[in-house]
């Protein structure tokens, strides 16, 4: 049976994934989330004409020539509007952000004036509108400033608040449950017995998923028993997980029980072997509405499969359209042999050469169990099936690994 291509597997993982329903999120929880509806301003900004400088609010007709002498009839500060109009020959002391009084149509900056008791002498001519921010300069009430599908950046939140929204309609955060299978696993800090190893995969995966804005449910370690594996799948579903990600037990050995557990819970499986390295024994299916991803147990395979398939799935559910990691170009720092029928994702370091070009150098050892090299890697070098040998200095495609 031919192995499924990475592209076909990617398509199947996303085939039944749709953005999750909308919720109202407070601005303190809105960063990085995707709007489920258009967002319109509930007010104009500024809501009235205001001064852009400290100075004097005047009628431009009174200060068309230098040397005009005006009577100061009051003071305007931000948040304290003047309660009367400015008449001919009058001015009001005004501070930045103060509402322009009725009758005034310009502001003379204080550096261009001389105060003489209750009068002010204007040193330069001033035209209408000078140093005034008109009503609605930034935006107007009812104006749609963010479209549905927009992902909110940090700088957007100031604008949303200025639009007078305390909460925004965004797609619900995906809930991702995780568990690992294996009698050989013990938690960090424990003393492993004969044949046991310290459980490590889940901590990288949970951090990766949280960085994508998901809520993570940690179901821990499950022993190699079918009833316990089925119970863990059921618990993830009962806790409302949108995605269940498992590590280990994804192959076809006697103790690889994850696919059996998925099927026992009524899963429809879309695939369970793909043409990639590392990560050949990768599974995907649906248990009801819950997506299930069965990742390999080797830590490098687990992480790379989560990055290539789990992250895009979470992004789709969160309403994002930028699903895949950005592919960049570098040059090879070392020769690479020809590739076989599987797509390769090689751990590599990055540096700059004397010309400022990115140089990606693959680790000589690419074993999927070597966590140390994954931790030291800056990127993955992407190689297609049957790609020919490539010499150092030739172009290659890379995906940078995030912090």
What features would you highlight for this structure?
19% helix, 403 residues, 26 strands, elongated, alpha/beta, Molybdopterin biosynthesis moeA protein, domain 3
Describe the structure.
This protein has 403 residues and is of the alpha/beta class. It has 4 domains: 6-20 and 172-317, MoaB/Mog-like domain (Molybdenum Cofactor Biosythetic Enzyme, Chain A, 3-Layer(aba) Sandwich); 23-43 and 151-171, no CATH class; 50-133, Molybdopterin biosynthesis moeA protein, domain 3 (Beta Complex); 327-400, Beta Barrel (Beta-clip), CATH 2.40.340.10. Helix content is 19%, strand content 30%. The chain is built from 7 helices and 26 strands.
Topology:
Elements lengths: L5 H10 L6 E5 L12 E2 L9 E2 L3 E4 L10 E8 L13 E5 L11 E4 L3 E4 L2 E4 L9 E2 L10 E3 L7 H9 L4 E5 L3 E7 L3 E2 L10 E2 L2 H11 L3 E8 L3 H13 L4 E5 L10 H7 L3 E4 L4 E2 L5 E5 L2 E6 L3 H19 L9 E6 L10 E10 L5 E5 L8 H6 L2 E5 L11 E6 L3
Parallel strand pairs: 5-6, 13-16, 13-17, 14-15, 17-21, 19-23, 22-24
Antiparallel strand pairs: 1-12, 2-11, 3-10, 4-6, 4-7, 5-9, 8-9, 18-20, 20-21, 22-26, 23-24, 23-25, 25-26
From the 3D structure, determine the CATH topology of the largest domain.
Molybdenum Cofactor Biosythetic Enzyme, Chain A
State the strand order across the main sheet: 7-4-6-5-9-8
Query: What is the CATH superfamily classification of the largest domain?
Result: MoaB/Mog-like domain
**CATH hierarchy class name of the largest domain:** Alpha Beta
| Average pLDDT for all residues | 95
- The multimeric state of the shown protein is single chain
What structural category do the secondary elements indicate? alpha/beta
């Amino acid at each position: 049976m031919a192995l499924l291509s990475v592209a076909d597997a990617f398509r199947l993982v996303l085939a039944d994934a749709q953005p999750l329903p909308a919720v109202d999120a407070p601005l303190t929880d809105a960063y990085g989330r995707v709007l489920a509806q258009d967002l319109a301003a509930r007010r104009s900004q500024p809501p009235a004409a205001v001064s852009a400088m400290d100075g004097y609010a005047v009628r431009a007709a009174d200060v068309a020539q230098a040397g005009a002498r005006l009577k100061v009839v009051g003071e305007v500060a931000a948040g304290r509007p003047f309660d009367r109009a400015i008449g001919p020959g009058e001015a009001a002391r005004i501070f930045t952000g103060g509402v322009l009084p009725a009758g005034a149509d310009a502001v003379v900056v204080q550096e261009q004036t001389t105060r003489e008791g209750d009068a002010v002498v204007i040193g330069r001519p001033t035209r209408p509108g000078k140093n005034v921010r008109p009503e609605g300069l930034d935006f107007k009430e009812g104006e749609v400033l963010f479209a549905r599908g927009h992902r909110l950046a940090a700088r957007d939140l100031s604008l949303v608040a200025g639009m007078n929204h305390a909460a925004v309609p965004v797609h619900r955060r995906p809930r991702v449950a995780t568990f690992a299978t294996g009698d050989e696993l013990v938690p960090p800090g424990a003393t492993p017995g004969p044949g046991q190893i310290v459980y490590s995969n889940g901590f990288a995966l949970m951090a990766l998923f949280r960085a994508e804005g998901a809520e993570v449910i940690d179901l821990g370690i499950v022993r190699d028993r079918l009833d316990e594996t089925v119970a863990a799948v059921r618990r993830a579903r009962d806790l409302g997980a949108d995605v269940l990600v498992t590590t280990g037990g994804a192959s076809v050995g006697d103790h690889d029980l994850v696919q059996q557990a998925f099927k026992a819970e009524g899963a429809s499986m879309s695939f369970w072997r793909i043409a990639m390295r590392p990560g050949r024994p990768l599974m995907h299916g649906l248990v009801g509405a819950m997506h299930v991803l069965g990742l390999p147990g080797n830590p490098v395979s687990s992480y790379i499969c989560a990055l290539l398939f789990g992250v895009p799935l979470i992004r789709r559910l969160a309403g994002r359209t930028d699903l895949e990691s950005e592919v960049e170009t570098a040059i090879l720092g070392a020769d690479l042999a020809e590739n076989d029928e599987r797509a390769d994702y090689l751990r590599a370091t990055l540096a700059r050469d004397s010309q400022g070009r990115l140089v990606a150098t693959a680790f000589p050892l690419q074993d999927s169990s070597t966590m140390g090299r994954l931790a030291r890697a800056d990127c993955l070098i992407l190689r297609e099936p049957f790609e020919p040998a490539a010499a150092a200095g030739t172009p290659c495609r890379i995906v940078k690994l995030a912090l």
